[in-house]
Amino acid sequence: MNFCLNKISSYYKKWIKKLKNLIFVLNCGSSSVKFAILNPDNEKTYLSGLVERLFLPDTYITWKFLGTKHKKILGSNINHKFALDFVIEQVLLKQKDILKNLIGIGHRVVHGGIKIKESMLINDTVIKYIQDAISFAPLHNPANLIGIKVIIEKYPILSKKNVAVFDTSFYKDMPKTSFLYAIPYDFYKKHGIRRYGAHGISHHYIARKICIILNKNFNSLNIISCHLGNGSSISAICNGVCVDTSMGLTPLEGLVMGTRSGDIDPSIIFFMNKKLHIKFDEIESILTKKSGLLGLSGISSDFRYFEKNYNLKKEAKRSVDVFCHRLAKYISAYTTLMENRLDAVIFTGGIGENVPLIRELTLSRLSLLGFRINLKLNLSTKGGKSGLITELNSPPVFVISTNEELLIAQETMNLINQK
Ligand code: ADP
Fold first, then answer.
1. Which of 75, 194, 252, 255 could potentially form a cystine with 232 if both were Cys, beta carbons 3.0 to 4.6 Å apart?
2. What does the pLDDT look like over 268-286, one tens digit per residue?
C-alpha cells in the first residue's frame, strides 16, 4: 500500500516539475460550460471538464484531472454563473500547482461582429464589441460574455491576461462573392448584414491538423471541412483561406442541425407570420430550438437516437436522409471553389467523428465526383480515432477529432507573447 502511495506521489512530483506556461480555456456555450487547462507548446491537456444540461432538471459536471474522472450532479435549473463558481472554486482553485503556472485565460467567443477580425486581449472596448454582436449570435455571445465578466469581476485571483478568441476570425479573408447576400447593398454597408460564419475555431484547428497529416503548407491547402455536432457547418478552404462557409449572419444558416433549421426559403417566415399568425419571437424559437433533427423527427436532437433507429423508424430515416442530402449538396458545391485540386474532405464534431452511417450516406451521394468510401475503415473510425476512410482511388476523406481548446490556448499564448 505504502509502496503504491509513494509511487503516486513521486509521479505527481515529477509531473508538477514539468508544469509551466499553462492556459485556462473557457468555452461558455448556450447550455454548457467547457473548460480545460493546457500547455499550448507541448499540446498536453492537464485538466478538462464540462458542465452539461444548464437550465434543465439535472445539470451535472464531469472533469478529468491526472487521469482520474470525476462527476457531480449540480442540481436543477443551474445557470452559467453558478456553474462557473463551481468550476472555479471547487475544481480550479483547488489545484494550487496548476494555478501557480497559469499565464493566461482564453475565452471562446462565437461572434466578433463588424469590428473584430482577430483574437484580442480583453478590455472594455472588446467587451463592448462582443456586446454589439449579440444580435448576430443571440444564443452564444451572451453566454460567452458571462464567462468573461465572471472571471474578470469576481475572481481577481485569476487576474491573468484574458484573451478572446473568435469563431468569426477564421473568415476574415472570405471574398465578397461569398459573404454578400443578394439584398440591397446598403444593408451590408450600413448595418453589416453579411455572412460571418461560425465554428471557425474548429475549422481552423482541422486545417492546421490536416497540414501535418498531409505534410503540406497551410497556404497551399485545399480542403472541405465538415463540423457536425449539435451545431453543424461546412467550410471551403482554398490556398489556406476560407473561401466560403455555410453559417451566415448568424449560426442559423446552412446545414441541418440538432434543433436549428439551417437553410430555408425566407418566405416561410412570412407565411408563418401572415398566414399562421405566429409572432416573430415564436418563429425565431421554432427555427432555432424546435427545428433541425428535432423538428424533422418530432422525437430527438441526439444523434445516438438516429443512429440506432435509422432502419427501424421512419421519423429517424427521414431526418437523417435530409441531413445527408443537404450535406452532400454543400460538399459538391464547395468542390467548385477548389483550384484544380481537393486535398481532403474532413469530418469532425460529435457526429462527424462518431457516426459512420452519416459519412457513408453522404459520400454515397457523391460517387459522380469520384468519392469511394472504404466501409471497413469507416466503421472502425470513431470514438476519438482519426484516419482516412476512403479507397485510394477516391478524393481523400479523413475523420479528425477537433480540439478547439488547443487552438484557443495557442492563440492566447501567441497574443500574450506578442504584447
Ligand atoms: P456541440 O455542437 O454541442 O459541441 P458536439 O460536437 O458535442 O456538439 O456533438 C453533439 C452531437 O454528437 C449530438 O447529436 C450527439 O448525439 C452526437 N454524438 C456524440 N457522440 C456520439 C456517439 N458516440 N455516437 C453517436 N452520436 C454521438
1. 255
2. 999 999 999 999 999 999 9
What is the reported pLDDT for 11? 63
Q: Report the predicted TM-score, pTM, of the whole model to 2 decimal places.
A: 0.93
Q: Is the CB of 230 under 6 A from ligand 1?
A: yes
- Its CATH architecture, for the domain 215-404, is 2-Layer Sandwich (3.30)
Say if CB 116 and CB 96 are below 8 A apart.
Answer: no
356: Cβ below 6 Å to ligand 1?
A: no
Domain boundaries, the chain: 16-172, 215-404
For 369-416, the pLDDT digits (tens) are 999 999 999 999 999 999 999 999 999 999 999 999 999 999 999 999
Question: Does ligand 1 come within 6 angstroms of the Cβ of 354?
Answer: yes
| Domain 16-172 and domain 215-404 have a common topology | yes
Does the active-site annotation cover 167? yes
CATH architecture of 16-172: 2-Layer Sandwich (3.30)
Active-site position among 41, 132, 167, 173: 167
